[in-house]
Amino acid sequence: MDTAETAPGTWRPGRAAAIVPTVVAALATLWATSVPGWDLLWLGLIANVWFCIGLVWLVTLVRMLLRRQSSAWFRGEWPVWSVPPLIVVLVCGLIYVNAPLEARFALSRPALDDRARAVSHGTPLPVDTWVGLFPVEWAERIPGGARFAIDGAGFLSTTGFAWSPEGEPPESEGENLYQHWHGPWYLWSRGA
Protein backbone atom coordinates (compact mmCIF):
# COMPACT_ATOMS: atom_id res chain seq x y z
CA MET A 1 0.00 0.00 0.00
CA ASP A 2 1.29 3.46 -0.87
CA THR A 3 2.09 5.47 2.28
CA ALA A 4 1.06 8.71 0.58
CA GLU A 5 -2.47 7.39 0.33
CA THR A 6 -2.76 6.91 4.09
CA ALA A 7 -0.70 9.85 5.36
CA PRO A 8 -2.64 12.03 7.80
CA GLY A 9 -3.74 15.35 6.41
CA THR A 10 -3.65 14.16 2.81
CA TRP A 11 -6.90 14.97 1.11
CA ARG A 12 -8.04 12.22 -1.20
CA PRO A 13 -11.53 12.38 -2.63
CA GLY A 14 -13.52 9.20 -2.43
CA ARG A 15 -14.85 7.37 -5.41
CA ALA A 16 -18.39 8.44 -4.65
CA ALA A 17 -17.29 12.10 -4.63
CA ALA A 18 -15.99 11.65 -8.17
CA ILE A 19 -19.04 9.90 -9.57
CA VAL A 20 -22.24 10.69 -7.63
CA PRO A 21 -22.44 14.46 -8.37
CA THR A 22 -21.78 13.75 -12.04
CA VAL A 23 -24.52 11.13 -12.22
CA VAL A 24 -26.99 13.45 -10.45
CA ALA A 25 -26.13 16.34 -12.81
CA ALA A 26 -26.42 14.00 -15.81
CA LEU A 27 -29.88 12.81 -14.76
CA ALA A 28 -31.02 16.40 -14.11
CA THR A 29 -29.70 17.45 -17.54
CA LEU A 30 -31.48 14.59 -19.29
CA TRP A 31 -34.73 15.44 -17.48
CA ALA A 32 -34.46 19.15 -18.41
CA THR A 33 -33.90 18.29 -22.08
CA SER A 34 -36.82 15.86 -22.21
CA VAL A 35 -39.47 18.50 -22.90
CA PRO A 36 -40.07 20.35 -26.18
CA GLY A 37 -37.88 23.45 -26.27
CA TRP A 38 -36.04 22.23 -23.15
CA ASP A 39 -36.43 23.67 -19.68
CA LEU A 40 -33.88 26.44 -20.09
CA LEU A 41 -34.23 27.83 -16.57
CA TRP A 42 -33.43 24.43 -15.10
CA LEU A 43 -30.57 23.94 -17.59
CA GLY A 44 -29.10 27.29 -16.54
CA LEU A 45 -28.97 26.12 -12.94
CA ILE A 46 -27.51 22.76 -13.94
CA ALA A 47 -24.82 24.51 -16.01
CA ASN A 48 -23.45 25.98 -12.77
CA VAL A 49 -23.32 22.51 -11.23
CA TRP A 50 -21.51 21.17 -14.32
CA PHE A 51 -19.00 24.01 -14.06
CA CYS A 52 -18.27 23.17 -10.40
CA ILE A 53 -17.96 19.45 -11.15
CA GLY A 54 -15.54 20.15 -14.01
CA LEU A 55 -13.47 22.54 -11.94
CA VAL A 56 -13.17 20.14 -8.99
CA TRP A 57 -12.36 17.27 -11.35
CA LEU A 58 -9.65 19.25 -13.13
CA VAL A 59 -8.07 20.70 -9.97
CA THR A 60 -8.03 17.28 -8.29
CA LEU A 61 -6.53 15.60 -11.33
CA VAL A 62 -3.78 18.22 -11.70
CA ARG A 63 -3.05 18.15 -7.97
CA MET A 64 -2.74 14.38 -7.91
CA LEU A 65 -0.59 14.26 -11.05
CA LEU A 66 1.87 16.78 -9.58
CA ARG A 67 2.49 14.66 -6.50
CA ARG A 68 5.59 12.48 -6.26
CA GLN A 69 3.58 9.30 -6.13
CA SER A 70 1.32 10.36 -9.00
CA SER A 71 2.06 7.32 -11.15
CA ALA A 72 0.96 4.94 -8.36
CA TRP A 73 -2.18 7.01 -7.77
CA PHE A 74 -2.93 7.26 -11.45
CA ARG A 75 -2.62 3.49 -11.96
CA GLY A 76 -5.05 2.81 -9.14
CA GLU A 77 -7.54 5.63 -9.60
CA TRP A 78 -7.74 6.36 -13.33
CA PRO A 79 -10.84 4.19 -13.84
CA VAL A 80 -12.74 6.22 -11.24
CA TRP A 81 -11.59 9.61 -12.54
CA SER A 82 -12.30 8.69 -16.17
CA VAL A 83 -16.00 8.07 -15.40
CA PRO A 84 -17.10 11.76 -15.20
CA PRO A 85 -15.77 12.66 -18.69
CA LEU A 86 -17.37 9.50 -20.08
CA ILE A 87 -20.69 10.47 -18.49
CA VAL A 88 -20.42 13.93 -20.06
CA VAL A 89 -19.81 12.40 -23.50
CA LEU A 90 -22.75 10.01 -23.03
CA VAL A 91 -25.11 12.82 -21.96
CA CYS A 92 -24.05 14.99 -24.91
CA GLY A 93 -24.64 12.08 -27.30
CA LEU A 94 -28.09 11.35 -25.86
CA ILE A 95 -29.08 15.00 -26.13
CA TYR A 96 -27.72 15.20 -29.69
CA VAL A 97 -29.98 12.33 -30.84
CA ASN A 98 -32.91 13.75 -28.82
CA ALA A 99 -33.17 10.57 -26.72
CA PRO A 100 -34.53 12.26 -23.55
CA LEU A 101 -37.55 13.74 -25.35
CA GLU A 102 -38.06 10.58 -27.40
CA ALA A 103 -38.08 8.39 -24.28
CA ARG A 104 -40.36 10.65 -22.23
CA PHE A 105 -42.77 11.01 -25.15
CA ALA A 106 -42.84 7.24 -25.79
CA LEU A 107 -43.61 6.53 -22.13
CA SER A 108 -46.34 9.22 -22.12
CA ARG A 109 -47.84 8.47 -25.53
CA PRO A 110 -50.86 6.41 -24.38
CA ALA A 111 -51.90 9.09 -21.88
CA LEU A 112 -51.28 11.87 -24.40
CA ASP A 113 -53.35 10.07 -27.07
CA ASP A 114 -56.27 9.59 -24.65
CA ARG A 115 -56.21 13.19 -23.43
CA ALA A 116 -55.81 14.57 -26.96
CA ARG A 117 -58.94 12.71 -28.15
CA ALA A 118 -60.87 13.93 -25.11
CA VAL A 119 -59.77 17.56 -25.50
CA SER A 120 -60.47 17.52 -29.25
CA HIS A 121 -64.04 16.43 -28.47
CA GLY A 122 -64.50 19.31 -26.03
CA THR A 123 -63.65 17.72 -22.67
CA PRO A 124 -61.79 20.31 -20.62
CA LEU A 125 -58.45 19.40 -19.10
CA PRO A 126 -57.85 20.55 -15.52
CA VAL A 127 -55.28 23.36 -15.34
CA ASP A 128 -51.80 22.36 -14.17
CA THR A 129 -52.19 18.61 -14.46
CA TRP A 130 -49.89 15.81 -15.54
CA VAL A 131 -50.49 13.89 -18.74
CA GLY A 132 -48.17 10.92 -18.71
CA LEU A 133 -44.77 12.28 -17.64
CA PHE A 134 -45.46 15.83 -18.84
CA PRO A 135 -46.70 18.66 -16.61
CA VAL A 136 -49.38 20.29 -18.74
CA GLU A 137 -50.00 23.95 -18.03
CA TRP A 138 -53.13 24.06 -20.19
CA ALA A 139 -54.74 22.34 -23.15
CA GLU A 140 -57.05 23.64 -25.82
CA ARG A 141 -59.06 22.41 -28.72
CA ILE A 142 -57.81 23.38 -32.18
CA PRO A 143 -59.39 22.67 -35.57
CA GLY A 144 -59.17 18.90 -35.99
CA GLY A 145 -57.17 18.24 -32.81
CA ALA A 146 -55.76 19.52 -29.54
CA ARG A 147 -52.78 21.45 -28.26
CA PHE A 148 -50.94 21.05 -24.94
CA ALA A 149 -48.68 23.66 -23.33
CA ILE A 150 -45.95 21.95 -21.30
CA ASP A 151 -45.13 23.70 -18.05
CA GLY A 152 -41.49 24.85 -17.85
CA ALA A 153 -40.77 24.14 -21.53
CA GLY A 154 -39.20 26.80 -23.72
CA PHE A 155 -37.99 30.18 -22.57
CA LEU A 156 -39.62 33.16 -24.24
CA SER A 157 -42.43 31.20 -25.83
CA THR A 158 -45.10 28.71 -24.90
CA THR A 159 -44.05 25.27 -26.06
CA GLY A 160 -45.64 21.84 -26.14
CA PHE A 161 -47.36 19.30 -28.35
CA ALA A 162 -50.17 19.47 -30.86
CA TRP A 163 -52.26 16.47 -31.88
CA SER A 164 -53.72 16.72 -35.35
CA PRO A 165 -54.65 13.44 -37.07
CA GLU A 166 -55.76 15.33 -40.21
CA GLY A 167 -52.32 16.81 -40.92
CA GLU A 168 -50.43 19.88 -39.83
CA PRO A 169 -52.64 22.27 -37.86
CA PRO A 170 -53.29 25.62 -39.50
CA GLU A 171 -50.95 28.40 -38.41
CA SER A 172 -52.82 31.46 -37.24
CA GLU A 173 -51.04 34.60 -38.43
CA GLY A 174 -47.63 33.00 -38.04
CA GLU A 175 -47.65 32.95 -34.25
CA ASN A 176 -47.93 29.15 -33.92
CA LEU A 177 -45.14 27.03 -35.33
CA TYR A 178 -45.47 23.28 -35.85
CA GLN A 179 -42.87 20.63 -36.56
CA HIS A 180 -43.96 17.06 -37.27
CA TRP A 181 -42.96 14.72 -34.47
CA HIS A 182 -44.56 11.24 -34.54
CA GLY A 183 -47.75 10.11 -36.25
CA PRO A 184 -50.42 12.74 -35.58
CA TRP A 185 -48.17 14.56 -33.10
CA TYR A 186 -46.37 17.85 -33.69
CA LEU A 187 -43.95 19.85 -31.62
CA TRP A 188 -45.60 23.22 -31.15
CA SER A 189 -44.41 26.64 -30.06
CA ARG A 190 -46.03 30.03 -29.88
CA GLY A 191 -43.88 33.12 -30.33
CA ALA A 192 -43.43 35.58 -27.48
Straight-line N-to-C gap: 63 Å
Write the H/E string, N to C.
HHHHHEEEEEE
Based on Cα principal axes, name the global outline: elongated
Give the beta-strand count.
6
* Share in helix: 40-55%
Major β-sheet strand ordering:
1-2-3-4-6-5
Point out poorly predicted stretches: none
How many helix segments? 5
Structural class designation? alpha+beta
Strand content: 15-25%
Radius of gyration based on Cα positions: 23 Å
* Mean pLDDT level: 85
Biggest sheet details: 6 strands, antiparallel
Structural commentary:
- Helix content is 51%, strand content 19%.
- It is of the alpha+beta class.
- A six-stranded antiparallel beta sheet has the order 1-2-3-4-6-5.
- A hairpin with a 2-residue loop joins strand 2 and strand 3.
- The longest helix has 27 residues, at 70-96.
Properties at a glance:
192 residues, alpha+beta, 6-stranded antiparallel beta sheet, 5 helices, 51% helix, elongated
What's the helix and strand layout?
Layout: H1 3-6, H2 15-32, H3 40-65, H4 70-96, H5 99-120, E1 129-131, E2 134-142, E3 145-150, E4 158-163, E5 176-182, E6 185-190
Antiparallel strand pairs: 1-2, 2-3, 3-4, 4-6, 5-6
Task: Give a quick precis of the structure.
The chain has 192 residues and is α+β, with helices and mostly antiparallel strands.
